[in-house]
Amino acid sequence: MCTDGVVVSKQDDLVAQGQRNADADSVQVKHFLQQTIDKDIDEGRLTGPLVTRFPPEPNGYLHIGHAKSICLNFGLAQEYGGVCHLRFDDTNPEKESDEFIRSIKEDVEWLGFEWHGDIRFASNYFDQLHELAIQLVQKGHAYVCDLTADQAREHRGTLTQPGINSPYRERSVDENLALFEKMRQGDFEEGACVLRAKIDMASPNMNLRDPIMYRIRKIKHHQTGDQWCIYPTYDFTHGQSDAIEGITHSICTLEFEDHRPLYEWYLERLDLLATPRQIEFARLNLNYTVTSKRKLKRLVDENIVSGWDDPRMPTISGLRRRGFTPHSLRQFCQMIGVSRNDSCVDVGMLEFAIRDELDKQATRAMCVMDPVKLVITNYPEDKVEELIAPAHPQQDMGERVLPFTREIMIDRADFREEANKKYKRLVLNNGIRLRNGYVVYAEDVVKDANGDIVEIYCTYDENTLGKKPEGERKVRGVIHWVSATHGKRARVNVYDRLFSVEFPDKEDDLLDGVNAESLTLRDGCYIEPSLLDAAPEQRFQFEREGYFVADRYDHSHDSPVFNKIIGLRDTWAKK
Question: What is the pTM of this model?
């Protein structure tokens, strides 16, 4: 979410920005989290291994902002010779599911990280958390409150007015213990009462105004089943789970800064062996993007996208299906750096990261997206010539075979009957070079009843394979092509940014900013035959078109499906 309109880096500055960060890394300039850990080591606060954790709530798919947190928590643990736990803070079974758990595990592994030991769940500690809650009641730091939700809201006060003590705040320890046990046994209906911490209803920090610790939820939990009918809140669970696991540094985003006094208040009043330290960093905000789980869920629920892993979504699963690589996401997180200042990053930096990687690593291929037939009238009808082309123009990645035949397909936009000199493609009575092939000269066209061109008649110069044409006939440029008889049909999903406005969150309605052209389906594309052997998630540069990936789920030899990852150059910078 970008709310202030300040963008860290525009597209024209991407290379320079990446270079600055790379230069900083080369001289080992440390960010503030590294500096904090170094100071803890130097001053004796950290005497054992660094232990971090990545603690998602399993109520949605992970998004690009989580990728930054994953890289930080796992990366710091690796850097300092420590370990990182993967823990699901599963305190709200109403919104959680095994599907989200599976996707999160897969995303972390796909990014290239390995958690320490078994996967952990906050629900693993429900017995301990319950005992800790009883401990706070016994010490007079917690009480059962019967206020309704509306009454509690009225008592809470505002940012400028203090709250009012609950009339149930001074119940005795014995009464609170008895009532809390009844809550545990299921004797009350949902909403009848809650367990609250007794802190300070006049605190300027709203999080300290007697926050809820436990609420009644008669819902089956995906891990514990029907064992519990009361569930701890996230704020009560989080710090205590960190302490139980021996986490040394709880690295959170800035929205948890106001929660830190509560985090520390619980730890100071409970008998726990470890005392984690919470440190906050600025979350990742991207323009042309939303990362709120609630808003992403709306896009899914209202069928704006096909699901959480739709290639237009900023989820890690969506980016993976779009064709982004683990390295490109990690590289992007490194490029944007770590700070405590909220800002908005240009999504062009993310696009630059994948474009830069694929330029060096993606093998080349040809795909005609909007085909029109070109007939080479002086080429033998039954002849099939195998032309050899490099798999990559600069890298040693081998070669590929291109069947060349009398009838080929070219892109409809690559031909005009008339054009000025600025048009560098095929024009009637002019020549063009076919990529990795011959020079052809357009001589005539055939049109249908609607006046649309259905065939282009050309001749070729057999002496121009790898050579310039002799004489005065000029060639305007180079176009790609695929054999009409040996090329194969494929579906190509042409994806673009999901939002056409820079700050979707500023729209009156989020859906007002949706890009109507974020997906174009092309079913009649022609691909060179070698692409049939593409494995799911294999990436290519379709020459003159952009970078594409064989779809993770839908692609097969018999029904090839490719997704557009990104264009060869940024076109949004010109809009």
Answer: 0.92
